[in-house]
Every structure is written in C-alpha cells, then in structure tokens.
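Protein in question reproduced for absentees:

***
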Amino acid sequence: MLLDIEPQWHITANFNRETSLRTGSAKLKTWASFIDRKLFGRNYYKKPNDQRLFFFAFPEIGSESEFLHYHLLAKLPETRHQKFTELAEQIWLDEVKTGSLYVQRIGNDESDLQRVISYDLKDIWKRGNYDNFIISSEFAPSPSETSRAQQGTVQ
C-alpha cells in the first residue's frame, strides 16, 4: 500500500517536548492546512486529495528520544515541490516553537523508497504507534462540508 502511493518526500516532524498523540495530530493537521493554503490558495479544501499534500504519518515515541515525533511519507503535485521545500520547515516552526522539521526528497530507485519505509516503520509495533498512524485525508472536509462551503452556507 505504501509503495502504491509513490511517496516523494520523507519528513520527520519533531516536537522536542512532551506532546500527546492528540496534540500531535492537531499540529500536523494545522501544518498541512497551512501548507495547502500556501501552495494551492484559500480554496485548497475544494481540491481533490490527489491534487494537494497527501501523507501517511507514523508516530514514534521512544527510539532515540522519549518525545513523540512523526515520520511522514508524503507526495504532492510536482509543480509545487520547490515552494514546498521553501515553506515546510518555517510553517512547522511557526506552529511548534520547540520543534524541528526535516524534509528529504526520496530517491527514484525502489530500494530508496523501501529503505525509507523500513526506517519510518521501525517502531510501529511499540507503544501503540500502530493504532495512531495518520492519513492526511482524515483532515479533509467531508463531501457535505465541501458542498456547503461551495454554496456559502458553512457556519
């Protein structure tokens, strides 16, 4: 499944402080929303998910730090790659003052992708990480919300 989405970016989103899974998810949602707005304009939420930032985010607590951080496998339209690399870290730092964000392009070779996926999933079975992974489409408005927004009736 992860290979099928053909992710282009490997991102590590750190909080560098105690953060709950709920807060971490909310921060990722806000970050993704700001990214989409900057890359695709104020009506970004009307675009289909495949024309926006899309990612799987895998929480990791432990490993080298006891603080929660996420490993993201992401993709977005090629035409927005340059601007994404210019914006991603600063938007994260604006949202998470103690945080850090590392953005790396995944190589074109399938072995590069397999290596990144293996790294991102190394602790998926520990501490409930598996039960708390995120797919960015979870953050998208429902079709009824999008329809109301297009009609100007969102409250």
